[in-house]
Design goal:
Elements: H1 2-6, H2 9-23, E1 30-33, H3 39-50, E2 54-59, H4 62-72, E3 77-80, E4 85-88
Parallel strand pairs: 1-2, 2-3
Antiparallel strand pairs: 3-4
Helix pairs in contact: 2-3
C-alpha cells in the first residue's frame, strides 16, 4: 500500500501518513475529512472507506459537494460549509 501512495506524490504521502500513522482509525470509526474534494482530502476519504470507516466530508461549493464528494468519491455525508447544507447518501 505504501508503494502506491508514493506514486501519488506528496498528497498521497501526506494522506497516508496522516491517516494511518497519526490517526490510526479502526473499522467502524467515523472519520471527518475537511476539504474533502482537495488533493489530500479525497485520498484520506478513500483510505477511510477502504479501511471500513464511516466518512463525512466538507467542501465549499454545491458542485464539489454533489458531484465529487457524493457521487465520485462516495462519502456517506457531506457538509457544504458555504451553503450550510448537509447532504447524505446513506
Amino acid at each position: 500500500m505504501l508503494f502506491s501512495c508514493v506514486t501519488t506524490g506528496m498528497p498521497g504521502m501526506t494522506a497516508y501518513v496522516g491517516f494511518f500513522e497519526v490517526g490510526c482509525p479502526k473499522k467502524g470509526d467515523k472519520v471527518f475529512v475537511s476539504a474533502a474534494s482537495g488533493a489530500v482530502g479525497q485520498l484520506v476519504g478513500q483510505f477511510a472507506k477502504l479501511n471500513g470507516c464511516y466518512v463525512v466530508g466538507s467542501a465549499g461549493t454545491k458542485e464539489k459537494v454533489l458531484v465529487y464528494c457524493c457521487y465520485v468519491f462516495g462519502y456517506k455525508s457531506i457538509i457544504s460549509f458555504k451553503c450550510y447544507n448537509i447532504y447524505s447518501t446513506a
